[in-house]
Design a protein that fits this description.
Shape: elongated
InterPro entries: DUF58 (IPR002881)
Structural class: alpha/beta
Strand order of the largest sheet: 13-12-11-14-15-16
Distance between the termini: 65 Å
Keywords: Membrane, Transmembrane, Transmembrane helix
Protein name: DUF58 domain-containing protein
Strand content: 25-35%
Number of helices: 10
Helix content: 25-40%
Radius of gyration: 32 Å
Pfam families: DUF58
């Protein structure tokens, strides 16, 4: 239907141009004289060009795009060069080119900007470079180059979308977090540590075959001298449980900060040669049973680049079944709002849980409401560690907790 309207509009404009030509010719024929024929001959090139432009096959133009920015972080700049190729050197005058995307956040960022007017003339190849600042996080699909060409006076206008589909992944920002376990105790203690990510390298429990990525200091050189086979020492874990990271994707103005905090935590754990299980709960359940290597981290970052705040039911209802299946004693819960129902759900469904830390994301200078304070106090009374974190103290989230 839209294409039919476009064709009707084009032929309507073309009819108007032909009518202008006919009127000027009729005026010259009936009026006679130098002035009337001068008007006709002056309008003749413009009307002929408009007719030819209406017949010019603009859909045969081909476009390409070269992306200069290989990896983009939220708030960063994206740069690319777009090029159009034509087979016929028909003179094009006012040509407005712009990127077309169906991403709402990217459209909002590009509103009224990043349009380029070029005058290709007879050139078969025309290119231009553009920069988009303050890129929003997400998966953005560039559908193609939108071209709009017009004649001298705008009598005839033609538009076309040159399909050049490419996907841009804008990853969340991360903060370098200094990872430091809160506490280190052995299994014989009365309470396990909230984080189980450190091995006691003074207590060797056995040997195993060497695996790529093992530290050189862990290699058992005496065994290598005897067998000429690399073997790695295994150590007693300081704690026997693994860390489970959980975040909810409820709709919130602080969701972007929450994503950045989760990405930073996961990055710090992996770079500390530790492991964690990660569950992201929204409309869809995204579960990563083991996050330990850079490859695992890249998969998580891909998820965090696309994730949206799409949780459409109370978080305690969405997570209850998952908590029952969770086989861990340490839980790190990241949210934008801690609810009483969620605290009760964790206590009810997480049977083997010994430690739970709740990180509640807050904006700088945000005041804690009385109802929220009540929930936090209730969670602390049940043994939970509750901490409000804002962007300025993301980097010290572990070290500050360890001093509490």
């Amino acid at each position: 239907m839209s294409r039919m309207k476009k064709n009707i509009g084009l032929w309507g404009r073309l009819t108007s141009v032909v009518l202008i030509l006919f009127l000027t010719f009729s005026f010259a024929m009936f009026q006679g004289g130098f002035v009337s024929w001068f008007i006709f001959y002056m309008s003749l090139p413009f009307t002929i060009y408009s007719v030819l432009l209406a017949l010019y096959p603009i859909q045969h133009i081909v476009a390409s795009r070269e992306i200069h920015t290989t990896q983009v972080r939220k708030g960063g700049s994206f740069s690319a060069t777009a090029t159009i190729y034509r087979k016929t050197p028909f003179p094009l005058l006012y040509t407005v080119a712009s990127e077309q995307t169906h991403s709402p956040s990217l459209n909002k960022q590009m509103a009224g900007q990043h349009q380029k007017m070029v005058v290709p003339g007879f050139r078969k190849i025309s290119s231009w470079t553009y920069v988009i600042d303050q890129m929003p996080r997400g998966e953005h699909v560039l559908e193609g180059i939108h071209l709009e060409v017009a004649d001298f006076f705008g009598w005839v206008k033609k538009t076309v979308l040159l399909p050049v589909q490419q996907t841009i992944l804008v990853y969340p920002n991360t903060v370098d977090i200094v990872y430091r376990p809160m506490e280190s105790r052995y299994d014989q203690g009365t309470m396990a540590a909230p984080f189980t990510l450190v091995k006691d390298t003074t207590m060797t429990s056995g040997l195993r075959d060497y695996q790529p990525g093992d530290r050189v200091s862990w290699i058992h050189w005496k065994s290598y001298a005897r067998t000429q086979t690399l073997r790695t020492k295994e150590f007693e874990d300081r704690q026997s449980q693994e860390l489970f990271l959980l975040d909810d994707r409820r709709n919130s103005e602080k969701f972007e900060l929450q994503v950045e905090l989760v990405a930073s935590i996961l990055q710090s754990i992996v770079r500390a040669n530790s492991s964690v299980a990660y569950l992201s709960v929204g409309r869809n359940r995204n579960y990563f049973p083991l996050v330990q290597t850079e490859e695992h981290l890249q998969r998580i970052m891909y998820h965090l680049a696309k994730v949206q705040d799409d949780l459409d039911k109370p978080v305690d209802q969405a997570i209850g079944r998952e908590l029952q299946q969770m086989n861990t004693s340490s839980l790190l819960y990241v949210t934008s709002q801690l609810s009483m129902d969620m605290v009760q759900s964790i206590r009810k469904n997480a049977k083997n849980l010994s430690n739970c830390m709740c990180l509640v994301v807050a904006t700088k200078g945000e005041n804690l409401l009385a109802e929220e304070e009540k929930v936090h106090q209730y969670a602390r009374s049940k043994g939970f560690v509750v901490k409000r974190v804002s962007p300025e103290n993301f980097a010290t989230v572990f070290t500050e907790v360890s001093r509490q």
